[in-house]
UniProtKB/TrEMBL annotation:
InterPro entries: NAD(P)-bd_dom_sf, NAD(P)-dependent_oxidoreduct, NmrA-like. This is NmrA-like domain-containing protein. GO terms for molecular function: aldehyde dehydrogenase (NAD+) activity. The lineage of its organism: Eukaryota, Fungi, Dikarya, Basidiomycota, Agaricomycotina. Gene3D superfamilies: NAD(P)-binding Rossmann-like Domain (3.40.50.720). One of its GO terms (cellular component) is cytoplasm. It comes from the Eukaryota. Residues 7-83 form the NmrA-like domain.
């Protein structure tokens, strides 16, 4: 298809765990030939590999705000999957999309936030019953302004309200599973998530599965493939002619398909290590303050990642046709291969 007729898409986070999984799906669409995808990439080696898939690349960082603004101004759709907390980045994207609007297009922003926005501290001691519903904007608006990701999300909603961009914000929870795509096979995409692999590395280092406090705090979980599917469902819905898919204030889409107490994840890690002779007990033990610093970087980070409460329900995501396939059982079953992967990275297997 001639370049002038193609849909210009700017992709941020193409080499990441989530972003690579989304990009691989975009490239596999039957209409992929009608898309002109440009990825902003930090590494020249990764850029070369992405180009082999027909992706145009620009070398640079999201901190290069002039570059970002200019790229956004040339895009009908922006996938923002690099950083959910960088305010100058989002302001640059929005400035670019405002310019795009002035040229007659009505552009689309699909941005990645996270259910970290719902977090309340518990130090692992108790669950919290409050569940945020993505079909309830008034409830989401009760979140504190200083909540994680909120400063970026609020700027996005305001831009939609001003009418120059349609915005869709995806909020994944604790994503699990080792990504397996054409981009991981090519060595260009990070295949690993954050929370469960960090818990596993900590357990291997102390030779014992662990948890924060009593492990009583609760999060949602979702498989990386299901998360990536949600981006594609939303992309199709948002780009459909005459789309009425909710956006802006109503454009929050949670990605979750399971709920766990962190004790259950700690228990599974402890069991896997114990079965392999790598852990002392099949029951998780509580991380000391010193261990949280050692294995998670700080007490605060450990408490946030695997000791806090964060609960939401993906009613709006399901209402637009998202059908997640993986369940809590899959999350628990994903831990043994994750342990294998960490051991392999550490050169122990
Ligand atoms: N994983 C989860 O469970 C989860 C859940 C909810 C929300 N999130 C959020 O979703 C976002 C993506 O997460 P992820 O797990 O996919 O992380 P990831 O695997 O580390 O991927 C991040 C992507 O963004 C790119 N990137 C980061 N900083 C950049 C910069 N300054 N300039 C240009 N590119 C940059 C990375 O490029 P390089 O290849 O150069 O590093 C990579 O492509 C993050 O904001 C994360 O907090 C993640």
């Amino acid at each position: 298809m001639p370049a002038a007729l193609k849909t210009p898409i700017l992709f941020l986070g193409a080499t990441g765990y989530i972003g690579g999984s989304v990009l691989a799906r975009l490239l596999a669409r039957p209409d992929a030939d009608s898309l002109e995808i440009t990825a902003l990439v930090r590494s020249e080696a990764k850029a070369r590999k992405l180009e082999a898939f027909g992706v145009k690349t620009v070398l640079g960082s999201i901190q290069d705000t002039d570059v970002l603004e200019n790229l956004a101004s040339q895009s009908h759709v922006v996938f923002s999957i690099a950083d959910c907390d960088d305010v100058p980045q989002i302001e640059a994207i929005l400035r670019g999309l405002k310019t795009r609007r002035a040229s007659g297009d009505y552009p689309i922003l699909i941005h990645t936030s996270g259910t970290g926005v719902f977090v309340t501290e518990a130090k692992g001691m108790y669950p919290r019953e409050l569940v945020y519903d993505d079909t309830d904007p008034a409830q989401i608006e009760t979140l504190p302004l200083e909540a994680q990701h909120r400063p970026v999300d609020l700027r996005i909603v305001q831009a939609d309200k001003e009418g120059y961009v349609r915005t869709y914000i995806i909020l994944p929870c604790a994503i699990y599973g080792i990504a397996s795509t054409v981009l991981t096979a090519a060595g260009v995409q990070n295949p690993y998530s954050v929370q469960i692999p960090t818990l596993i590395r900590a357990a291997l280092a102390r030779k014992q599965g662990g948890m924060v406090g009593r492990g009583a705090a609760v999060w949602n979980n979702v498989h990386v493939d299901d998360v990536a599917d949600l981006y594609l469902v939303l992309y199709s819905a948002a780009t459909a002619p005459g789309s009425t898919t909710p956006h802006g204030r109503e454009g929050f889409y949670i990605a979750e398909n399971g709920t766990h107490a962190w004790s259950a994840v700690g228990k599974q890690v402890a069991q896997v290590l114990y079965d392999r002779g790598l852990g002392g007990s099949p029951e998780p033990t509580t991380f000391s303050a010193r261990e949280l610093v050692e294995h998670f970087g700080s007490e605060e980070t450990g408490n946030f990642l695997v000791g806090s409460n964060s609960r939401g329900v993906a009613n709006r995501s399901r209402a637009v046709g998202w059908k997640p396939r993986y369940t809590n059982e899959d999350m628990l079953a994903s831990i043994a291969p994750e342990v294998e992967a960490v051991l392999k990275q550490q050169g122990s297997r």
